[in-house]
Amino acid sequence: MKIPVFPVRFLPMLFSSSIISCCMFLGSCNSSSSQQIEYDDVRIIAEAAHPILPGATSAQRFGRERPVRPDEENSNRPRLAYNLPDGWTEIPLTSMRRINVRIAGNPVAECYLTLLPGGGTLRANIDRWCKQMQQDPISDELLQTLPKTRLLGAESVLFEIDGVFSGGMSGIPIEDARMRVYILPVGETTVFLKATGPRLLIEQQSDVIDEFAASVRLEPAQSGSPAPGSALRWRVPDDWKVDSPRPMREVTFISGEKARCWITLLRGDGGGRLANTNRWLGELGVDPISTQQLDDLPVKKMLGGDATVIEGEGTYSSMSGPPRESWALIGLIRLLPDRAVFIKLVGPAHEVEASRDSLMELVSSLEVVR
Amino acid sequence: MKTATTTLLLLGLIVALCPTSIELLAQDSPTSADVTVPAPVDQSPINETVSTDRPQWSAEIIQQVARWPIQHGGRVKPFGTFAGFTMLKINGKRSLVVEEEKLGPVQWALDCMLYPDLARNYECILVSNAAVLTSIGFDASDRKRSARWSYNELLGVVDVLFRSTQQIFDSKPEASEWSLLERQTVQLAENVRSLEDLLYSFETARHTFPLDTVEELKAIFGDSPGTGFSALISGIDQLETLADRETLLALPPDRQTPVVTALQQLQTDLLRHMQIADRGIAFFPPEQVQVSQENLPVVWSRASGVVQAALAKEPQDRRVLALAALETLPQLLQERALFGEKASEVLDHLSTLAQLHGQYKKITMEVSFYRIDYFYRALICFMLAFVTACFGWLKPNSRLPWKGTWLLGLVGLVLLVTGVTIRCVIQGRPPVTTLYETILFITSCCVTTAFVIERFDRRRIALTMAVLLGSLGCFLSMRYELKEAITAGDTMPSLVAVLDTNFWLSTHVTSVTLGYSAGLLAAAIAHVWLIGKLLGIRKDDKDFYRSITRMVYGTICFGLFFSLVGTILGGIWANYSWGRFWGWDPKENGALMICLAELMILHARMGGFIRDHGLHLLALMNGMVVAFSWWGVNLLGVGLHSYGFTSGILQLLLLFYAIEGGIVLISLIHRAIQRQVYSGKSTDTPAST
Amino acid sequence: MIAGERILRLFGSQGLAALMMLFLLILTFFGTLEQTEHGLYQVQKKYFESWFLIHHLGSVPIPLPGGLLCMIIFSVNLMVGGIIRLRVSRRNFGNFIIHVGIAVMMAAGLVKMVASDEGHLTLWENQQSSEYISHHKWELVVFETGQDAVVEYRIGENRWKNTNGTALVSAQPGTADRNPRGLPFGLELTGALTNCRAIPAGPRWQPDSPAVDGWELMKLDLEAENERNTPGLLVRMQPTADQDTTAQQALLWGRQNYPWTFQVQDRTFAMVLRKVRHSMPFSIRLDNFEKVDHPGIATAKEFRSDVTQNSQGVDRQIRIEMNDPLRDQGLVLFQSSWGPSNAGVGDDLYSVFAVVRNPSDYWPLYSCIVIAVGMAIAFIQKFLNYSKRQARMTGKNTP
User: Fold this and answer.
1) Which of B163, B246, B675 sits opposite A350 (nearest CB)?
2) DSSP state, C92?
3) pLDDT at residue C21 above 50?
4) What integer pLDDT is reported at residue B294 of this predicted model?
5) Which of C113, C112, C116, C135 is CA-nearest to residue C50?
């Protein structure tokens, strides 16, 4: 019987190759304890490829990474900017109001900017405001001779009227009120900057309002200075994800399929707890509460103090979409000496309930950075 | 014998060429029924309250509706295809028996859309693993482990099902991490959602909007406005004027509040129905052709899109007509003749719109493709051909069975190739883009090559292999179609960007696939040699065995050419497209392994290390390598045990390996024994092998 | 002489070829299976770019020759047996051509392994860059800050990554063209870890590095996806005797927010551990990125980038899309992918380009053509012989 020739032929070859490979294997082992190496090469470039922080400590070098786009400074989405006069406070934006401020701290005096596509004719709007203030419509001659002023760098019409005003955010009618509106048609849209409040106050502040109107501008977002990040620090709950950044919010979280939670920071008291609570409840179709009831609401420890916890359930209607049934809200408001912190979790009722624990985790993890 | 063969022959030809005869022959035919044939009894228990007290759908209506073009899954397809795959996905089969009536996909879909109350009681939701139901708190103990349920039966747990699914998504964003139960739960949720979408698709068409609540609205819409969005669209301009600020303020003060309330009510109702319509079917192509240099795809709208376009005052006369015609259908259910006319009116409008964008050309072709069901008929032909081939082997001297085999086999091949070609034409790309298509393509190549070999060799070995492989291939394709329906909802899916290039698809993928077919064919023929030697068939016919050896060797060379060229072309494609020629990727490795195995066989034979027995053993093992490259590498990415369906493939693959491994082992042992025997008898020379 | 002849014959034998193919087949099979657990990069290094390895089948260790060894022996076998020693005749001319083609391909592979670079370039809209970043390789870089141009001194990972001991780098003298004042300090690199994390020093865990400045490195298991492995090491900087500064040490980590900066007399230097950056001879600015989806579903139909390439002062507008790359000056830029992956509708997207420098870019194409031609010749000849023999066979058999 013939012995298969296969193995015999290859013995010497296998033997030699295994010797070779053993040598290679051993050779790659680094047995010496220290060895001298050289720089591989030198590359000359125009500027450093890394941001330099001279004297950066280890903590700064290794600290928590900020989730930041590599190029945030170059985002050229224009934003509305303005110079907030002393004593005026910012209040939360709504879907209609792109700027929303309180004049001189007065709870019923406000000034806001809205954009309306189309926007109607000047006559139509003025008639409407006249009606709102319970006055008669103005004559045509008066309409033609309305003073002009500048808004956003272009010529706009200024209209002022006194009367009884009941259209404010607080819903409280003001007997002796004044409305001062700057109207600017821009292409297909009309920009309105409207100041309303007690007549005397508006009269007294008219120069300030004018200056404020003149300071409103469109700006490409912070160029040059690096994005400073938030004034707060938090720990993202495990089952939440961070959503893309939105204007006026410190951060937005995705807490469920539709549920969202966001943190807003405003200067001053941000409108106060009652107004915001009732606004939130109103979005859910829940009746507004009184100051008494507000004080009876539960509190939770947040940022070294007590934050009011507001909860509600109902049909959520906002301007951005159809009304949604069986939605719920858990909100927290914490007033700091110079700022107000708002946390709002909104979504379908079962999602909000399921996210309650994570929300509380988030609240506990909040810290002020600056 | 003769009569038996002739009967089989005639039967086969009838099957191949007549549409309705399939009905009579086979129970679970996957075709949509054209005529209502009294169906044989079905085993599943039927809910007592179900009654199909509605007239049955006529063949003309089914034909019209099947041809409605829709856009789904990224491409324009006939409604019939959509209904077919949706039914396959939810129900597991393309037919459903309800109280002695057999419903095909289009009928079932029409029932869901137009008789939702009836359809909710149809037991058409297949739950293959009752554990899915028990895990969401549903008591499934009165049925078998794998059973079909109706929507109404599951209604109580639908919410829980969706919540569980959401939890799965939130906790494990990567689908590859899901357990088998989780995948099945997600699958069930998707199926239930698809069914709901169908059930609610005509909801707005049956709904009357509150258009007559106040006088001002009645002035626009009349005293009895119709149903559906169309009623709204007919007066939408006037409605907008009414809702305008100016007009509202111009109203007398006592009218303002009621009108505003009525408008708000209307708006709420409209928004709700728009939300429902957003989940409906995209029937409506854009009214106008937009020429853009960006070559953007044409996006079809749902009914909600038509309403939005109406609100935006875009011109869309035909779309509005199409929508109106569709929404009239629920009212014509009792008058089938009128229904049929309306259905063809819908077809008319939709097809005209689709033709504007050049998207209707292939619809009729696709409808008839699915109706004729080429691959099923090819399977029948191949199976009959195999039976006649068996007769041929049993009675070696008669030539009639072989004639039958040839004829049936050729008819089967023609059907198979026609089917593959039509698929090619419909999709506008080579027939090798999905795993399902590779099954069909490989089967065609194997059968064709075997026929060519038979032409030269004439020993009927290749012929038998041809029809056997044809049957196996067609059968496998039918089982795999079910899987594609579940995962992709279609066997003609849209391609990801990187694959969307016809040149490389037709050269590289086709070449590698041809290489696969040749490898499998060589392995199949090698079985004949090995099993023949094992069983001692035709021991003394050396020519017989020698010709088999030549066949195998030739096929391997043929396969090597295509495998090697195909693999290198793949590398060149990768290098051209994304800069690396070879990345040691599992699919690439699979192709490389086939090339290496076949090269190894050739060199070992040239060097004299293996002779015939070795060649056939290695050819058989090469078949295992091909199976690994074709199927095995796909299982790796998903995780071997995590997907219900791929675990089915895995089991099949392991079974195949076990059988093949067994044959190899037995053959080796047999040979060793033989050599012992021969070396014992020193006077006899070992039979030359 | 006879022994030499024998060895030559051995190296050129078909049996050796078959054996090497068998080994490569086994390696490929095991390598494919291992990828699911250990990731492509590690498997490639262990199975296909190595001399020797031990594969564990369950708990059974199987020693195998590495991919590199097999391919080298295979190539030698090919040259000796398939080309040099092959007596070229009409009969085996086809085979000869095939072997030449395969030799070209093996050469292409060798060139790619030795002389090629690849990486990625990620740009948001309106962002510009003239360098690409390696996917897997790391480097240690030292440079002086506050100068007009930045002179980076680089050490590749091969030198410091796998050392069990210490690597010493000496001070660099100044050179007129690059950096007149040189680097007046030596470095000592120790404790390199392939995957680690920087954590505040604490009593609760076992440190894998000395604690420096309240922080230390913790070793982590290797990730299957190699891009996520982040190295770290300890560096001690020793100024030369004439500099009036004390030695300093610091931990370097691949994902640190800022480089480590230190002062030597009046000069400030920075040191960073980063993925290798290669300069391109031109710059690319992303003007517009388009992602077109299939209607109604989330799969991308196509995506493409419109870029401006600035080469030697000349601007060129170019479109780069899938299957249509930019080839210029030895570099090839492919549209590879985009992100961020959780982008919603209307969010800004960034475009990712794959950049490759490969001198043997076209060689596989040439080799494919050569192989195809050779195979066609060989197999047509074989087939003609076969049919001639069959005809004779059937001619004999029919009465």
Assistant:
1) B163
2) T
3) yes
4) 61
5) C113
Rounded (5°) CA angle A49-A53-A57: 125
C192 at the B interface (CB within 8 A)?
Answer: no
Preceding peptide of C340 cis, ω within 30°: yes
Q: Which of the pair, B494 or B78, is modelled with greater confidence?
A: B78
Give residues with Cβ within 8 angstroms of A275, minimum separation 6. Answer: A91, A107, A169, A170
Indicate yes or no: CB of C295 within 8 angstroms of CB of B300. yes
Reduced 3-state DSSP string for B588-630: HHHHHHHHHHHHHHHHHHHCCCCCHHHHHHHHHHHHHHHHHHH
Check residue B315 and give its pLDDT.
84
* Residue A16 to chain B, least CA–CA distance (Å): 22
Q: How far apart are CA B263 and CA B216, in angstroms?
A: 10
Average predicted confidence (pLDDT) for chain B: 82
C-beta of residue B359 within 8 angstroms of C-beta of residue B353: no
Per-residue pLDDT, B169: 84
Mean pLDDT of C177-182: 78
Is A67 in a helix, a strand, or coil?
coil
Of C299, C364, C386, the CB nearest to B496: C299
For the segment C249-262, the average pLDDT, to the nearest whole number, is: 89
Minimum CA–CA partner of B170 in chain A: A239
Res. B32 pLDDT band, cuts 50 70 90: very low
pLDDT band at C302 (very low <50, low <70, confident <90, very high): confident
Decide if A283 contacts A316 (C-beta within 8 A). Answer: yes
For residue A18, the model assigns a pLDDT of 61
Q: Which pLDDT value is given to residue B563?
A: 94
**Would you state the torsion angle of the CA atoms of residues B358, B362, B367, B369, taken in this order, to the nearest 10 degrees?**
-170
Interface probe for B, chosen from A188, A255, A257, A316 (most Cβ of B below 10 Å), is A257
- Among candidate residues A359, A24, B362, the one with its CA nearest the CA of residue C73: A24
Q: Which of A64-68, A264-268, B61-65, B488-492 has the lowest mean pLDDT?
A: A64-68
Min Cα distance A58 → chain C (Å) is 6
Using the predicted structure, report yes or no on whether residue B25 has a pLDDT greater than 60.
Answer: no
Residues of chain A with pLDDT under 70: 1-33, 64-79, 94-96, 117-120, 166-172, 187-188, 219-230, 247-248, 318-322, 370
**Residue bearing tokens 């159809």:** A322
**pLDDT higher at C387 or B94:** B94
Chains with 3 or more CB pairs under 8 A to chain C: A, B
Beta strands in C223-266 (DSSP E): 232-239, 248-253, 260-264
Question: B126: which 2 tokens?
Answer: 């297949």
Cβ within 8 Å of B, A 66-125: 120, 124
CB C323 within 8 A of CB B501: yes
Q: What is the pLDDT of residues C116-134, one digit of tens each?
A: 888 999 998 888 888 999 9
The residues, any chain, with a CB within 8 Å of residue A16's CB and separated by 6 or more, are none
Residue B390 CA: distances (Å) to CA of B5, B404, B460, B531: 11, 11, 11, 16
Q: For residues C218 and C199, what is the distance between their CA atoms, to the nearest angstrom?
A: 7
**Candidates C26, C49, C97, C294, partner chain B, best to mutate (most B CBs within 10 A):** C294
Beta bridge partners of A151: A154
Q: Which residues of C touch B579 (CB under 8 A)?
A: 118, 325, 332, 334, 354-356, 358
C-alpha–C-alpha distance, residues C29 and B39, integer Å: 51
At A108, phi and psi to the nearest 5?
A: -110, 0
* C-alpha span between C248 and C271 (Å, rounded): 12
pLDDT range class, residue B40, cuts 50, 70, 90:
very low
